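testing teh design pipeline on a random one, pls ignore if ur not involved
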C-alpha cells in the first residue's frame, strides 16, 4: 500500500493556439475562415500535399509569433528552419506536419520564456514554434465504438503556434490559471480569439512522483483542461495506491464521457523521423524586425490591469479578474464610461455577472446583455425603483432574454412596492392569520421580524423594506391599545 495523497504532481503543457487573425492558411492561400463551411471545401494542392506543390510561408504568422514571443519574455531566434514531423494519421493528408524542432540542429522561432501566475509562481516556457494544424476527425459516438471516422481537411494547414512549458505546473487549477493568462495575452495581442471553437487546444504531460509520464491529448478547449487533469491524476494515484505500474503512454480525453482512454504506447521522438523541410528556405528574423514588433506591441494584460485600477479606481482583485477575459474587461470599460460608480459596477461584473455566466456555462458574447442595460439596471437600484435583490433577478433575466431592464420590470411587475395603502391591507391580512405572532411581537422583536418577513414574502421581496418595517410597527402599536 502506497500513501498517495502527498505525492507531488508535475504537469507540462503543450498549448496550440490558432492564429485566427490571419486571412489564409500557413503555407497556402486557402481561406482560414473555415468554421461555417462544408467539409473539405477550403483545400488546395498545397495543404493536401499533392506531389509537386510547394508551400509558401505566410509572413504575417511570423509577425504574430514574434509578438507572442516578446509577450512571454522569450529569446527570438534570428534564423530558424522548418522540419517535417512524419506520422501516419488520417488527419494529415501529407503524412507529415510542417513544424519546428529544437533538436538535431533545429531551432524553434523562440525559446526560454516565462509567465508569472498571480502569486510568485513562475511557469517556464521552453519553446514557441510555428506549425500547421492537422485536419479534424470526427466519430459517430465515441472514438472506441465508432464504426467509421470522418475527416475534414478545412483545418489542415491553418497556422498555429505551439507553446511548450517545462513541467512546472503542480495542480489542475494552476494549469487552468496559466491557460487563462495565455488566452488573455493572445487576445490582447489580437492574434488569436479564444472564443472560436477549437482555436485553443492543449495536450498535457502528467507525472506523479514515482510514476511515468503520461500524455493526454485532445483537450479541445481550455475549459476542459482542469477536468481532464483531475481525472488523470485520480486514475494514476489509484494505480499507484494499489501497487500497479504506470506505463508511458498516450491517452485521449473523451470529452463526452469525461474519462481518458489509452490510445497507443507513446511514440518516441525518433518515431517522428524529423528532418528539415527542404521546400522552405530558412527563415531569418532581423533585429530591426524584432524592434519593429516591439514598438507595435499593443497593451498587454499587465498594463491593462494597471490602467483599469487608475482610470476607474477599482480594486486590484477586480482588475485582475477582468483582464483575464478581455471581452469582459472591455464590457466593463464600456459600461463604466457611462456610470458614476465604476467600483460598484466592477463588483457586479466580477461577482454576479461572472457567476451567472459560469452557472449558465456560456461566454459573455453568447449572453444577450448590453453595457447600457446593465448601467440602466444599476441606476434603477440607485434611485430606489428596485431593490438590490430584485436587481440580481433582473440581471439574470437580462442575460437570458436581452430585454431592457424597464421592459422586464414592467412585464414582471418587479418595481419596488411603496404603495402604503396596499401594504397596509396586506399587513392586515398577515395580522389576522398570525394572531399568536402578533401577541408575541408586543414583547419579542424576533416576532416583529417574522411579521415583516411575511409582508416581504407576500410581495415577493418587492415591498420597500423600510416602509414595510414601519407599517408593521405602526400596526402593532394600534393593536396594543
Ligand atoms: Zn490550401
Ligand atoms: Mn504541435
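output:
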Amino acid at each position: 500500500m502506497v500513501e498517495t495523497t502527498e505525492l507531488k504532481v508535475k504537469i507540462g503543457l503543450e498549448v496550440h493556439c490558432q492564429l485566427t487573425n490571419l486571412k489564409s492558411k500557413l503555407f497556402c492561400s486557402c481561406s482560414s475562415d473555415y468554421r461555417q463551411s462544408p467539409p473539405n471545401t477550403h483545400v488546395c494542392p498545397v495543404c493536401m500535399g499533392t506531389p509537386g506543390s510547394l508551400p509558401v510561408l505566410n509572413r504575417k504568422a511570423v509577425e504574430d509569433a514574434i509578438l507572442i514571443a516578446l509577450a512571454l519574455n522569450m529569446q527570438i531566434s534570428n534564423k530558424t528552419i522548418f522540419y517535417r514531423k512524419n506520422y501516419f494519421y488520417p488527419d494529415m493528408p501529407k503524412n507529415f506536419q510542417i513544424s519546428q524542432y529544437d533538436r538535431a540542429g533545429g531551432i524553434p522561432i523562440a525559446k526560454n520564456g516565462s509567465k508569472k501566475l498571480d502569486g510568485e509562481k513562475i511557469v517556464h516556457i521552453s519553446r514557441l514554434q510555428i506549425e500547421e494544424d492537422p485536419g479534424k476527425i470526427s466519430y459517430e459516438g465515441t472514438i472506441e465504438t465508432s464504426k467509421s471516422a470522418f475527416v475534414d481537411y478545412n483545418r489542415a494547414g491553418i497556422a498555429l503556434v505551439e507553446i511548450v512549458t517545462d513541467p512546472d505546473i503542480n495542480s489542475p487549477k494552476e494549469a487552468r490559471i496559466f491557460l487563462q493568462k495565455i488566452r488573455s495575452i493572445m487576445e490582447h495581442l489580437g492574434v488569436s480569439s479564444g472564443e472560436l471553437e477549437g482555436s485553443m487546444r492543449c495536450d498535457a504531460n502528467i507525472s506523479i512522483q514515482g510514476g511515468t509520464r503520461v500524455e493526454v491529448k485532445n483537450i479541445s478547449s481550455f475549459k476542459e483542461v482542469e477536468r481532464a487533469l483531475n481525472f488523470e491524476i485520480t486514475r494514476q494515484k489509484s494505480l499507484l495506491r494499489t501497487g500497479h505500474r504506470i506505463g508511458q503512454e498516450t491517452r485521449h480525453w473523451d470529452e463526452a464521457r469525461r474519462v481518458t482512454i489509452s490510445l497507443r504506447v507513446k511514440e518516441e521522438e525518433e518515431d517522428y523521423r524529423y528532418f528539415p523541410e527542404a521546400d522552405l528556405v530558412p527563415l531569418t528574423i532581423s533585429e530591426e524586425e524584432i524592434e519593429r514588433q516591439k514598438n507595435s506591441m499593443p497593451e498587454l494584460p499587465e498594463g491593462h490591469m494597471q490602467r483599469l485600477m487608475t482610470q476607474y479606481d477599482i480594486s486590484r482583485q477586480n482588475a485582475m479578474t477582468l483582464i483575464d477575459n478581455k471581452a469582459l474587461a472591455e464590457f466593463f470599460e464600456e459600461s463604466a464610461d457611462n456610470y458614476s460608480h465604476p467600483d460598484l459596477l466592477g463588483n457586479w461584473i466580477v461577482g454576479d455577472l461572472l457567476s451567472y455566466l459560469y452557472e449558465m456555462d456560456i461566454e459573455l458574447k453568447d449572453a444577450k446583455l448590453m453595457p447600457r442595460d446593465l448601467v440602466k439596471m444599476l441606476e434603477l437600484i440607485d434611485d430606489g425603483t428596485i431593490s438590490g435583490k430584485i436587481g440580481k433577478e433582473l440581471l439574470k433575466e437580462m442575460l437570458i432574454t436581452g430585454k431592457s431592464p424597464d421592459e422586464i420590470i414592467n412585464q414582471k411587475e418587479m418595481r419596488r412596492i411603496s404603495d402604503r395603502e396596499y401594504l397596509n391591507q396586506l399587513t392586515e391580512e398577515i395580522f389576522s392569520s398570525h394572531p399568536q405572532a402578533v401577541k408575541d411581537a408586543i414583547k419579542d422583536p424576533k416576532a416583529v421580524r417574522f411579521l415583516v418577513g411575511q409582508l416581504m414574502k407576500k410581495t415577493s421581496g418587492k415591498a420597500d423594506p423600510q416602509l414595510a418595517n414601519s407599517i408593521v410597527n405602526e400596526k402593532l402599536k394600534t393593536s396594543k391599545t
